[in-house]
Amino acid sequence: MQDFQGKVAVITGGGSGLGRELALSCAARGMHLVLGDVDEKGMQETLRLVAETHPATESATMKLDVSSLEQVEALAELCKSRFGAAHLIFNNAGVSVGGPAWENTVADWEWVMGVNLYGVVWGVKVFTPMLIEQGEGHIINTASAAGWLNGPSMAIYNVTKHSVVALSETLALDLRDAGSKVGVTCLCPAFFPTAIHESARNRPEDKADTVEPSEMMKKRTEMIKQAVAKGRIQATDIAEMTLKAVENDQFYVFPHRKIKDLIKMRAAAAEAEGAAFDSLNP
Ligand SMILES: NC(=O)c1ccc[n+]([C@@H]2O[C@H](COP(=O)([O-])OP(=O)(O)OC[C@H]3O[C@@H](n4cnc5c(N)ncnc54)[C@H](O)[C@@H]3O)[C@@H](O)[C@H]2O)c1
């Protein structure tokens, strides 16, 4: 898609970090916004920033949990009732939990898989038929460099992001084979500064963390926090790169160039059939 003026952008996780910057980038292109997030205050802050810079933007918000199919269906209904359509679908909401795989609890798995994987699965399931029927639209799934490379202490996150890459590639192929003009982009950034390391702020009570973290888990969690804070590319730049990718109908987006080299190194490690490749200590 190239002409964004007056079109509708749906952004999950629109209340913080990358989702907020995507909202600003879409508003700058004259788009209407539909934000979905568990954090109502965060979404209102996004809309306040949008109103400051692009006061003519029309918008709607829905407090929702993307891990619920019914709530994602309600988001699509909101798009239809408010704007009659949806064009750019950013399946972007995400959370993170660290620690060695054997220490992660059932609640950890259910929470992170629910948001990072099922959130995207439901976004694809609910919105793709709408876009196909319209004959235009683009689905943008926020994966991660962790969709290609596995650093230690991020098992659940890595699993979900590999799955998002798999889902996105397959979706793009299926749309191609169906002769559809609906586009797909899979965004794969490395660490960049946002509030992702404080994901527990939005963790639901029924999936609460009940286990005292081990020293190893605390150390790894701190390491990830530092890596996020030190990220060299800002969310605002990643949002702009993503919108340009949509304009160019580009499938992959790797904002951090180093990641492509690491993927080649991982392929070489697979070729050698030796030790598991550690992307944080290559
Ligand atoms: N920051 C990084 O280093 C980094 C790197 C690669 C990929 N990503 C991905 O970028 C995306 C955006 O994350 P971010 O870095 O902006 O983090 P963030 O914490 O700043 O924003 C995430 C947003 O998702 C919302 N959210 C959490 N659970 C939700 C749920 N169940 N339903 C709806 N919304 C929910 C949060 O309230 C928040 O507004 C995520 O998919 C993340 O995995 C981030």
From TrEMBL:
GO terms for molecular function: oxidoreductase activity, acting on the CH-OH group of donors, NAD or NADP as acceptor. It comes from Halopseudomonas salegens. Signal peptide: none annotated. Belongs to the short-chain dehydrogenases/reductases (SDR) family. It comes from the Bacteria. Keywords: Oxidoreductase. This is NADP-dependent 3-hydroxy acid dehydrogenase YdfG. PROSITE patterns: ADH_SHORT. PANTHER family: PKSB, RETINOL DEHYDROGENASE 10. NCBIfam families: PRK06194.1.
